[in-house]
Specification:
By secondary structure, this protein is mainly β. It contains three helices and 35 strands. Strands 24-23-26-31-28-29 form a six-stranded mixed β-sheet, with no helix packed on it. A five-stranded mixed β-sheet has the order 5-11-10-7-8, with no helix packed on it.
Length: 481
Amino acid sequence: MAPNEDRSMFTVFASLTAVMAFLIAAVGIVVVVNDDPSTSTVATAAPVTVTLTEFAVAPAIITAPAGGSLNVVNGGSMAHNLVVVDQGLGTSDLVGGQSELLSLGNLSPGEYTVICDIPGHEAAGMVATLVVTEAGADAGELAVGADAGGTADAAHGGSAEIDFAAMDKAMIDGANEYLDAFAEFGTGVPTEGRGNELLRPEAGPDGVKEITLEASLIDWEVEPGKWVKGWAYNGMIPGPSIRIEPNDTVRVTLINNTPLGQDIHWHGITAPFPMDGVAPITQPMVEPGETFTYEFTTPDHHELGMYHPHNGGAHTIVNGMYGQFQIGDVPLPAGRTISGRTIPADLQVDRHIPMVLNDAGTIGLSLNGKSFPATDPIAMAAGETLMVTYHNEGLSCHPMHLHRVPQLVIEKDSWPLDQPYWADTVNICPGERYTVLIMPEAEDAGIWAYHCHILTHAETEEGLKYMVTVLVVTDPNATEA
């Protein structure tokens, strides 16, 4: 046999061996060898599938026999893992679409807590209960076919554990509750606390604009009845939206009333090195109970960034410490024709909204610190111009999709675009800012869904959820029937 033929045969044998090993792992074949060399038995214990998404572990109660295994599948877009708390068992970090077999080893029958232990994911909802039964119990009995209650077999596009009629009802009830709250209160379903309060500092006797930002821990209602421990500036999440002008001298006093050392980084804002806010590189750490003053002169042109801690950001930022920092007006593409649509030469912005995107920490999947149905609908009249600046302070990218009404993207990370463009979905990744104009016309009147288009960020089996709001467009010239 020629050398290359020998290698080829070896490669085929090795490949078949690897495939056989994979199949054994995949179907959970366990070979039991007894004392009689003439006989052996093969027992099949099918792995129990567990799916990880943003931010949930499904099913919420996982049942598997002692000595069994879990087929852990990442059905989300972010990296996740599954860890059995305090038992030294867990998967590696899995990217979206990846799976891994987790052997339950010598876990005794009983109940255990399983989580995703990537920072912030457990607090965002990735926790479940693992029930280990006596060896030989048939966990497969939990997965049965369709019945009259509205469930469906997994082989027919559903899951036996999902009641689709209940899903429909939850969607209808949740949407109606949201719209009823808007009609009555002009908001989403009422919760305590609102962020993004506009802060326009006045110049003091020395011409310097003074700002005080107090960092503290607060109780924050993310959605109706769901209170979390948030980290905040001036008692709100997001922190105050700060607006100053080019060539202003600004003096910001940080008061640290948290248990963690603090600093403030002016993300996307031109500031001198000692004021960049990266302790201990550019400044001393602002220890608990201490203060620090930042002072710098803004550039002679527009910038639009955000402010947040740099120290401990993986904990503090996702838990609420962030805010918009704007210098001057965003340049507008007035009078230009973009993809066949002419922008009015006298274009004026009627309202500017920061929209802070988050997906982790205690706040979790949210818009401006609130999760649907607590997110506020955005109301405007046809013919008006709304400016929205997206700020991604989370851990993953979020494609923000607005139904019917296009978004004109005019600025990215403080840089006005030479070629603005229209889009119905704008993808914002961590640390990025995009500014868009929304200019509905009379034929756009209606209530339009506005949400992150990662589907698990906008909907669950309980209906609409998390990163969802609506744009309500009215026609001021319409007459009631």
